[in-house]
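Narrative summary of target 7.
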Amino acid sequence: MKKISVFFIIGFMSTLGVAQDKTFEKLPGFVDMGQILNLQEGELTTEIEIKNPLLSLVANMSEAEDSDLAKLLRGLELIKVYKFESSESKLDNIKQKLESLDLQLKKNKWDQFVKIREKDQYSNIYMMSGDSTINGLTVFTIDGNETVLINIVGDIDLSSIGKMGRKFNIPELDTLEMKN
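Modeled conformation, tokenized:
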């Protein structure tokens, strides 16, 4: 009987973990980047996925050192950062997918607040606003043959975003820091 209970508990806990992953997709700030990641060649040069249990733990550990950062982290559910390199032939496909995703985000009421188009650079930054908060931040950048995709889900304080980048060693977030 004890063996059955242990297996039942392990099975139940594992389904909770799977269910928890799926709930991120339902949050208003979540963006599915799978269609773009499928176009990568080779390995990701950067892959960061930090979920709420760890974010809350880091928030608690950071409270004494930096209460603003701790407050920001407590409001977050998910941070995803992907960086990869592509050949010239794949870059056109990636740009097409990003343009398609751009239309989808705008249709879903995301606000685009940065758009850069230069010879070798393509960048978009979007925010999903809630009643009185920002629920999501998404960044898509192509610089030369390097693509960076960022999605931050939860209640976001833009004035603290650079601190978060430094805390988790995510240099792509340092440039997003906003001054009050």
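The CA atoms of residues 140 and 149 lie 5 Å apart.
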